[in-house]
């Protein structure tokens, strides 16, 4: 364990932690910005629903499924031209955010869709009966009522992104997973690998606990 | 049927359905389903009209036509002079603010307090926070929940949740209230309280109420008028008291017998026959209503005809505030005596029916 107590190693750890945080935060945020409206649309656009557009619903569903069935590591290399277009480079932490976001958005869309579909249809009917427009129903009924489920879903997304971010070392994305592979595996420093895994366990545990806590806070369906 | 309807139409009808038909298009393996067949119905201003029917009779569809949650396939749905069926979705949303609705499962937003649930229609209408506050607090007071404003639905009982539902439905000052099985999920005592509240808002706010239910007791407790729906058709409608005391359609009779309990017990039904015999007694059903119910007619009959009557079954009820009852008596009587009994009973305002001999 002494190897990792050097100042150099501490700095590597600190930088890797920052890169992981940066990649997960930015891809999670942009992924949510894209996935949220997509998820709302998927949940409300089948036949007879608020924004009924069955053909578009099916088309978007297809794209979402295609993106979700592509293995992440293949996605990373397959979209290099797109990455270069958006990030200006295909290597580095910023570049890694592109595939992470593209993986996160459809995942989040499905999570939002599921959470909204879990909202009682009777609430939509009640809102319609007081004169709510479809947009108002989304704002005042669907999203607030689905918030506990959305919170748990986004927690799951963040945990998955932390896992995915370990793979973007392949394009020089950095981060904790990359540190573990390069030092722990390729340079035979098992204690670095172990330390990386321990830190990741702590982070995931923390994220999950925070998510669970917030979801419980948001959920008013049971007596407290 | 037609004469009742005409009398309703002569008063100002707040809600009128004219020759409404609703057919759900075929989907997949299911063929087209007609939920409502040429329905005509009028709810006079300020009245409470109850539509009673079994599940699947079409009552849910019917009530949803009135605020445009469903649109008719043909026919007109007129609420205070506006044809709901002809409105655009946008105009319909404005119109819905004058038509409140309450639901069997309350349909309250779980993450809003009682106050904020009542505030929802006002937020949607674009009122300011101050205006909303000024409107919501008296409404919570009206439904008896002033002290529960900050409670979430999960912290309220079923009856309290429905009170919030009623306050929400009244938030935009509607002139019509639709009640979709509003008491079906409640226990009898809470049901009585909610019905009393409906009656109160009906009287105090001159609100026209259209309610649907499968329970005769609900109709009996609050409805001025009743319409019986069966297989998507209104089979009978009129003043509640008239319909109950003179049920004409088989479905109505079934609902009425459920309430008045005029069905004979099984052991008698097994023995009863249509042919008189010396060892058998006649079973006669006497129906009394209105003023007749208050007379000492049973002792008048026995004294006048010198007959001994045994009581088999009796039930007196009050519908729309008027007494109504049935009595089944047994008599060792020949044909002449029965005729005399029927004649005497008629002069006292009673209806008689010889059920058979047992």
From TrEMBL, chain A:
Asked whether the keyword DNA repair is assigned, the reply is: no
Residue ranges of domain ABC transmembrane type-1 in the record: 17-211
Enumerate the subcellular locations listed in this protein's record, separating them with semicolons: Cell membrane
Name one process (GO BP) from the record: D-methionine transmembrane transport
Broad class of where this protein is predominantly found: membrane
Keyword line: Cell membrane, Membrane, Transmembrane, Transmembrane helix, Transport
Domain of life where this protein originates: Bacteria
Q: Which residues cross the membrane?
A: 20-43, 55-79, 85-108, 149-172, 192-215
User: What NCBIfam families has UniProt attached to this entry?
Assistant: PRK10782.1
Q: Which family does it belong to?
A: Belongs to the binding-protein-dependent transport system permease family. CysTW subfamily.
What is the name listed in the Swiss-Prot or TrEMBL entry for this protein?
A: D-methionine transport system permease protein
Which species is this UniProt entry from?
Devosia crocina
TrEMBL record, chain B:
Q: State the SMART domains in the record.
A: AAA, NIL
Family membership noted in the UniProt record: Belongs to the ABC transporter superfamily.
Might you name a Gene Ontology BP term for this protein?
amino acid transport
Role summary: Part of the ABC transporter FtsEX involved in cellular division. Important for assembly or stability of the septal ring.
Would you say which domain of life the source belongs to?
A: Bacteria
The UniProt entry, under PANTHER family, shows: AMINO ACID IMPORT ATP-BINDING PROTEIN, METHIONINE IMPORT ATP-BINDING PROTEIN METN
Cite the entry's keywords alphabetically: Amino-acid transport, ATP-binding, Cell membrane, Membrane, Nucleotide-binding, Translocase, Transport
Recorded protein name is Cell division ATP-binding protein FtsE
A GO cellular component entry from the record:
plasma membrane
Cross-referenced CDD domains, in alphabetical order? ABC_MetN_methionine_transporter
Annotated ABC transporter domain ranges read 15-256
Q: Which GO terms describe its molecular function?
A: ATP binding; ATP hydrolysis activity
């Amino acid at each position: 364990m002494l190897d990792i107590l050097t100042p150099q190693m501490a700095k590597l750890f600190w930088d890797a932690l920052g890169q992981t945080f940066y990649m997960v935060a930015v891809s999670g945020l942009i992924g949510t910005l894209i996935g949220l409206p997509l998820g709302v649309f998927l949940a409300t656009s089948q036949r007879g629903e608020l924004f009924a557009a069955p053909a578009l619903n099916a088309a978007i569903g297809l794209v979402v499924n295609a993106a979700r069935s592509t293995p992440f590591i293949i996605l990373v290399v397959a979209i290099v031209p797109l990455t270069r277009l958006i990030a200006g480079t295909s290597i580095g932490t910023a570049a890694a955010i592109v595939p992470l976001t593209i993986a996160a958005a459809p995942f989040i869309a499905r999570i939002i869709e599921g959470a909204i579909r879990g909202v009682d249809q009777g609430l939509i009917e009640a809102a319609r009966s007081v004169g709510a427009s479809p947009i108002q129903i989304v704002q005042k009924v669907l999203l607030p009522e689905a918030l506990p489920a959305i919170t748990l879903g986004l927690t799951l997304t963040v945990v998955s992104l932390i896992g995915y971010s370990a793979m973007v070392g392949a394009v020089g994305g950095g981060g904790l997973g990359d540190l573990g592979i390069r030092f722990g595996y390729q340079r035979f420093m098992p204690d670095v690998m172990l330390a990386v895994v321990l830190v990741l366990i702590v982070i995931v545990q923390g994220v999950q606990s925070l998510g669970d806590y917030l979801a419980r806070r948001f959920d008013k369906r049971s007596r407290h | 049927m037609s004469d009742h309807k005409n009398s309703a139409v002569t008063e100002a009808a707040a809600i009128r359905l004219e020759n409404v038909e609703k057919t759900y298009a075929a989907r997949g393996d299911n063929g087209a389903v007609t939920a409502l067949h040429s329905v005509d119905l009028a709810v006079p201003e300020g009245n409470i009209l109850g539509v009673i029917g079994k599940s699947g009779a079409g009552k849910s569809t019917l009530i949803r036509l009135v605020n445009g949650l469903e649109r008719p396939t043909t026919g007109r749905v007129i609420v205070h002079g506006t044809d709901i069926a002809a409105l655009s979705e946008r105009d319909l949303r404005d119109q819905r603010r004058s038509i409140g609705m309450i639901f069997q499962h309350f349909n309250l937003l779980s993450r809003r307090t009682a106050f904020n649930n009542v505030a929802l229609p006002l937020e949607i209408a674009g009122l300011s926070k101050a205006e909303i506050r000024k409107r919501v607090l008296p409404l919570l007071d009206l439904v008896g929940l002033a002290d529960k404003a900050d409670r979430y639905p999960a912290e309220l009982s079923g009856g309290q949740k429905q009170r919030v539902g009623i306050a929400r439905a009244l938030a935009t000052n509607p002139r019509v209230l639709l009640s979709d099985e509003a008491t079906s999920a409640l226990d009898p005592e809470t049901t009585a309280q909610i019905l009393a509240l409906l009656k109160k808002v009906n009287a105090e706010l001159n609100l026209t109420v259209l309610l649907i239910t499968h329970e005769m007791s609900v109709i009996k407790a609050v409805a001025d008028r009743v319409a019986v729906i069966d297989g998507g058709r209104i089979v009978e409608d009129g003043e509640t008291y008239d319909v109950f005391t003179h049920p004409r359609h088989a479905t109505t009779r079934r609902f009425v017998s459920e309430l008045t309990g005029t069905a004979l017990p099984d052991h008698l039904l097994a023995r009863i026959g249509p042919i008189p015999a010396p060892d058998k007694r006649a079973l006669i059903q006497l129906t009394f209503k209105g003023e007749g119910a208050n007379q000492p007619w049973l002792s008048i009959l026995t004294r006048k005809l010198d007959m001994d009557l045994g009581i088999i079954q009796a039930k007196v009820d009050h519908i729309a505030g008027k007494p109504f009852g049935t009595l089944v008596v047994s008599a060792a009587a020949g044909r002449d005596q029965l005729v005399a009994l029927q004649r005497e009973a008629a002069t006292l305002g009673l209806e008689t029916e010889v059920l058979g001999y047992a």
